[in-house]
From TrEMBL:
Subcellular location: Cytoplasm
Sequence ranges assigned to domain Thioredoxin in this UniProt record: 3-177
Name of the protein described by the UniProt record: Thioredoxin peroxidase
Function text: Thiol-specific peroxidase that catalyzes the reduction of hydrogen peroxide and organic hydroperoxides to water and alcohols, respectively. Plays a role in cell protection against oxidative stress by detoxifying peroxides.
Spans traversing the lipid bilayer: none
InterPro entries: AhpC/TSA (IPR000866), Peroxiredoxin (IPR050217), Peroxiredoxin_AhpC-typ (IPR024706), Peroxiredoxin_C (IPR019479), Thioredoxin-like_sf (IPR036249), Thioredoxin_domain (IPR013766)
Taxonomic path: Bacteria, Pseudomonadati, Bacteroidota, Bacteroidia, Bacteroidales
Gene Ontology molecular function: thioredoxin peroxidase activity
Length: 209
């Protein structure tokens, strides 16, 4: 698995579904450079069980991300047609109808591989043929990317383990607070709480309270 924190997020251009119903051919994270922070997350597959709970949870909190000027984007190794169909399916029938943020199609597995979250790898067998070892799907990777395209936070869960949208918002708040104030955010910090200047005096004062 790659550690991308502190590095430029991998560049890609791919098909995606926007606004729950529009397929585009050339979606890219580069459109947000200089404009927005990005939460880019991977999930294993459409029409599964844990995945819709996460995808809908992000949609339920989408206004919180938007007021922080953060774009939320999902991605799996399914096709754009699978995404589109799932987005047209009612939630009571196992679908994710009502989700409006972009879902990227990574049918080639290349985006997941470049982000280091592909649950398997290509190799050659004894006959010189390319084979895939493992599961051709993405782990639950999430990447917080700043306006310069630099990854500032990443977390990767195994497939059975759903993520916390509230923790993602907390990390967004911490990053934006640090960018705006220069102070660092201690353990379990939340917006509005005391932060720390990078001095021994500030750390000692924080620990004493």
């Amino acid at each position: 698995m790659s550690i991308l924190v502190g590095k430029k997020a991998p560049v890609f251009t791919a098909k995606a579904v926007l606004n729950g119903n529009k397929i585009v051919e050339d979606f890219s994270l580069e459109q947000y450079i200089g404009k927005k922070h990005v939460v880019f997350f991977f999930y294993p597959a459409d029409f599964t069980f844990v995945c819709p709970t996460e995808i809908i949870a992000f949609q339920n909190k989408i206004e919180e991300f938007e007021k922080r000027d953060v774009a939320v984007i999902g991605c799996s190794v399914d096709s754009e047609f699978s995404h589109w169909k799932w987005l047209q399916t009612d939630q009571r029938d196992g679908g994710i109808k009502g989700v409006k943020y972009p879902l990227v199609a990574d049918a080639s597995n290349s985006i997941a591989e470049n982000f280091g979250v592909l649950a398997g790898a290509y190799d050659y067998n004894e006959n010189g043929e390319i084979v895939f070892h493992g599961q051709p799907a993405a782990y639950r990777g999430l990447f917080l990317i700043d306006r310069e395209g630099i990854v500032k936070h990443q977390v990767v869960n195994d497939m059975p383990l759903g993520r916390s949208v509230d923790e993602t918002l907390r990390m967004v708040d911490a990053l934006k607070f640090h960018e705006e104030n220069g102070e660092v955010c201690p353990a379990d910090w939340h917006d509005g709480e005391k932060a720390i200047s990078e001095t021994q005096e500030s750390i000692a004062s924080y620990l004493a309270n």
